């Protein structure tokens, strides 16, 4: 079997390694940390910084293709790796999703609805952006934000100075505030030969900026459900994408609005592990390995709940619950806000 290189050894890299292993592949994980969660299950681990050219080369030479579990890989590392092995999904997908401004410009160019947006580098830009977009609005760093970090909400123009200070000089984007009824996401996969398969949309609830639960089926009309899947396929095709992607959407009376895309397996797709014959991790591995996609039809209703920080105290109780499938990441130290695991509860 082939060996799949995975950049990033967090829980997503760990679950990708498990899925690869089930199909007879080996994985080699590259991570800058000392004890990455994926290290327990990968066949091989390199812990070195992304600046270590020798380590990157050695890693690439042991694998057949390279994928990743997070989008903030330094360009310099990709420059080195792509000369040695194919990187899937491609760099274009990374470039588009690494920067919220490029992402929104790409989505609107494809005819998809996004929040109104404007680039903000300084106080003058922000004043102009507020005049154009209005308030309420959200100022977000263009890069490196996750779990709601790097964001500041503006109720009125009076909040401008504070919001700008919150960005600490990082290039930012002002987004108009969307008055949505629900948040959903679609996890879709595109194979090397261009087949597309999307999982049933999930409904997401956040707590303190972090995903709390994903419920399938989502409360949607059949046309909304169809729309969500079709626009995801459109994004995958437009990027000539290979692998699994998460597309976060706002449901509004005026239609679906794309919040952001993630060029990787996605937390809101973890329900697929117990709701489908083939889950998001296996679909991703199949795609990057050049296999046909598997059957991702939902066979059960599921509620996925993230286990964050002290939620780990609930594990002994959850372990006794009927219909509950636990997935723990083997992280040694519990910290507030840290994703420690999740539980998929089968509802029917
Ligand atoms: P993730 O952990 O999903 O990568 P993130 O840090 O990239 O999150 P976003 O998804 O952009 O952040 O925003 C986090 C949450 O804030 C969204 O799920 C949504 O609830 C809310 N939000 C973000 N942008 C808007 C908006 N323009 N209008 C209304 N709510 C928003
Ligand atoms: Mg994000
Ligand atoms: Mg998000």
UniProtKB/TrEMBL annotation:
One of its GO terms (molecular function) is 5-(carboxyamino)imidazole ribonucleotide synthase activity. This is N5-carboxyaminoimidazole ribonucleotide synthase. ATP binds at residues 100, 140, 145-151, 175-178, 183, 206, 259-260. It holds the Pfam family RS_preATP-grasp-like. GO terms for cellular component: cytosol. It comes from the Bacteria. The lineage of its organism: Bacteria, Pseudomonadati, Pseudomonadota, Alphaproteobacteria, Rhodobacterales. GO terms for biological process: 'de novo' IMP biosynthetic process. Keywords: ATP-binding, Ligase, Nucleotide-binding, Purine biosynthesis. HAMAP family: PurK. Its EC number is 6.3.4.18. Belongs to the PurK/PurT family. Pathway: Purine metabolism; IMP biosynthesis via de novo pathway; 5-amino-1-(5-phospho-D-ribosyl)imidazole-4-carboxylate from 5-amino-1-(5-phospho-D-ribosyl)imidazole (N5-CAIR route): step 1/2. It comes from Thalassovita gelatinovora. It catalyses: 5-amino-1-(5-phospho-beta-D-ribosyl)imidazole + hydrogencarbonate + ATP = 5-carboxyamino-1-(5-phospho-D-ribosyl)imidazole + ADP + phosphate + 2 H(+). Homodimer. Residues 104-289 form the ATP-grasp domain. Catalyzes the ATP-dependent conversion of 5-aminoimidazole ribonucleotide (AIR) and HCO(3)(-) to N5-carboxyaminoimidazole ribonucleotide (N5-CAIR). Catalyzes the ATP-dependent conversion of 5-aminoimidazole ribonucleotide (AIR) and HCO(3)- to N5-carboxyaminoimidazole ribonucleotide (N5-CAIR).
